[in-house]
Specification:
Largest sheet: 9 strands, mixed
Number of strands: 14
Number of helices: 8
Order of helices and strands: EHEHEHEHEHEHEEEEEEHEEH
CATH architecture: 3-Layer(aba) Sandwich
Strand content: 25-35%
CATH superfamily: Glutaconate Coenzyme A-transferase
Radius of gyration: 19 Å
Length: 255
């Protein structure tokens, strides 16, 4: 089945206001920047987004955030975006902070049809006991706090129950995809992309290279096409327009 869509605009055209999105990427690595830009241009708003982080102030999900298009974020790291901090502390944005491994497993579990799982991560903290600020009231108080979660002892150790995550749509970026949606990710671009893809009821992949069925080694496929509904072939400008979150260079002459 050919899953190619003609443009980024076509790929996201049916994402409505208020949708829940699972978005791949880690920092600025492997983010679906073309699909995010198309969603921004479309004007979709009131989004509930699940992603490891929210881009930076002028790139990735940070573009949607700057235009007040995101209502809620479920993330594990948010430290590179000043506007994110401002909106959260002022009560404009609801944020559910989740341990990074827990977030990964919540996405995987949702995609596998598993409603919940027990993990030791967060036991004895507000992650399990509740009280983490989800939304501030703009005056320094907490308007919405996280609820307490069920805990249970297994073999003498305590665990907390975490719920699997599903989303209306997933947006991901692949290094190579075939026209049926099988995907390969280069090195660290793999990050949260397969997990986000699994969690989405409709998954849209933007691919730097698109090949015909049979061109990919079946043993080397990172995400089977069964999880993908739409494939967008990126143009040269989209492929070249990658950003580096933090550029660190060595001083000339140093060891």
């Amino acid at each position: 089945m050919d899953k190619i869509v003609a443009s980024a605009a076509d790929a996201v055209a049916d994402i409505p206001d208020g949708a829940r999105l699972a978005v791949g990427g880690f920092g600025l690595c492997g983010i679906p920047s073309a699909l995010i830009a198309a969603l921004l241009a479309q004007g979709t708003t009131d989004l509930d987004v699940v992603s490891n982080n929210c881009g930076v102030d002028d790139w990735g999900l940070g573009l949607l955030l700057a235009q007040r298009r995101i209502r809620r974020m479920t993330s594990s790291y948010v430290g590179e975006n000043r506007e994110f901090e401002r909106q959260f502390l002022s009560g404009e944005l609801e944020v559910e902070l989740t341990p990074q491994g827990t977030l990964a497993e919540r996405l995987r579990a949702g995609g596998a049809g598993i409603p919940g799982f027990y993990t030791p991560a967060g036991v004895g903290t507000q992650v399990a006991e509740g009280g983490l600020p989800w939304r501030y009231d703009g005056a320094g108080g907490i308007a919405v706090a996280s609820p307490a979660k069920e805990t249970r002892e297994f073999d003498g150790r305590m665990y907390v129950l975490e719920r699997g995550i599903t989303a209306d749509f997933a947006l991901i970026r692949a290094s190579v995809a075939d026209t049926t949606g099988n995907c390969v990710f280069h090195a660290s671009t793999r990050n949260f992309n397969p997990l986000a893809a699994m969690a989405g009821r409709i998954t849209i992949v933007e691919a730097e290279q698109v090949v015909q069925p049979g061109a990919l080694d079946p043993e080397g496929i990172h995400l089977p096409g069964i999880f993908v509904q739409r494939v967008l072939a990126l143009g040269p400008d989209d492929v070249a327009g990658k950003r580096i979150e933090r550029r660190t260079v060595r001083k000339e002459g140093s060891a």
